[in-house]
Request: fold
Amino acid sequence: MPTESDKIELSEHELREIAGYAARCARRTLPLFEQSLPADPRPREAVEAAEAFAGGGRRTGALRQSAWAAYRAAQDAATPASAASPASSAAADAARAASHAAAAAYLHPLADAHQVKHVLGAAAHAARAEELAVGDSAAGDARPVTVGHPAAGRSPAAGVGTLEWACQHAPPAVAAVLGRLPAAPPGGGRVGELIRALDAALRA
Reply:
């Protein structure tokens, strides 16, 4: 169980800044989901809920439910019947980015490496969605990630991707809160690699 010594400082302003940042990252890849499932509003609603919280709204049960709804949308996009499709895989990660954006409002003030995922999960899943959208399959999971390269988090043919954008546009609160947390944990496949690369870049 966490103790008082495990807690970190986390202001409401910082929490709103982080949620807004996560929403902006996730919004970049909403079209990848909506091209595959145009009638499903759940990821967009999650991003909009995160934006509303970032703008001063209350942290309500509806916000949490929007995060879970977007997560279920990701599961629906990645159903076995469509899992082999790069577009469906990209759509699933775009929905996961939206889910993480809404969940960012529930970042816990604990010195736990897994909390880094709450801060950077939306950016990492959006970056992975972009990779998949341009044909970068799971076989690319072992490829190194270097934030600062113009195609970081995205295949070179696609130009500047979300991972680089996320590094360049992170508000001060993001780096400040990351500095109070342990480094991102190992594991998590390609998305985990993207989280660790962005985490390291924002701490530099």
Q: What stands out?
A: Residues 115-133 form the longest helix (19 residues). Confidence is low (pLDDT under 50) at residues 138-142, 149-159.
